[in-house]
Structure formats: C-alpha cells, structure tokens
Design goal:
about 140 residues; alpha+beta; 4 strands
Amino acid sequence: MNDVNIDDFYHDIGIILLSLFQQFPRKVSLFIDDISGPDEMDEFGLHSQRYLSAVGALMWLHDEGYIRYLDIIKQESAEECTLTQKAFVKLITPNLSKEKLANAHSIEKRESTLAFQIQQALREQSSIDMQRIIEQYFFHAF
C-alpha cells in the first residue's frame, strides 16, 4: 500500500499537468492552493505539509523538464507557468499500439491520451487510477 504522501504526489502531478494543458499555450499563474486545497498556516506562519508537498510536486515537474515557470512567489504561485514540449506531447499522444492506432477513430484516440485519463481519474476521485496512470507514463519505460 502506498504512503499518503505518494498518493498526494500523484494527485498533484495530475492537477498541475491538466490545469496547464487546459490553458496551453498561455503562460499562467498557477496557485499552490488550487493544487493542494486551502492551506492554514500554523502559529509561526509556516505552511502545512500538504501544501508544501504540492510545492514539491510542482518543483519536481520543473526539475524533470515537464513544466517551466519564471519563479515561485512566496510559495504561493508559480508565475508564467506552462507545459514544455515534452509534457505536451506526452499528454496528447494516444496510448495505443500501432495496429489499434491505425484503425482507431478520433474519439478512441482522444480517450487513450494521458490528458483524458488524468481528467477521468480526477473526476472519479480515484487515487488508484491516478497512481496507475502516473506510474505508467512517468516511471515505466515504453
């Protein structure tokens, strides 16, 4: 069984990628609380672990070359954030064999993309599906 922080990581990756995909190619301000949910700072003005995990997921996507941004402002937002070409291609490429791809209709092609699968997993609030999707597309060699 996965740790909750890994489930949150997969969820955050999905939220970030889908949000930027839906606004592509514009550079946008991506707010951390739109990824993690509302944050309540502690008595010392420090963010929660959940909130900081969302910042970490954003930085991981940047470090791995999937997104770019100008700067993270006060751990509140990533400014001028957009997908890289690497991420965009990964999100739109149908996950079908060559034989199936040749015979697939446009709806089948669209529904086999990473973007569509992430959208479905988020809609269904399925952490198991999100884990499978993220691991398949980001951590397994094809």
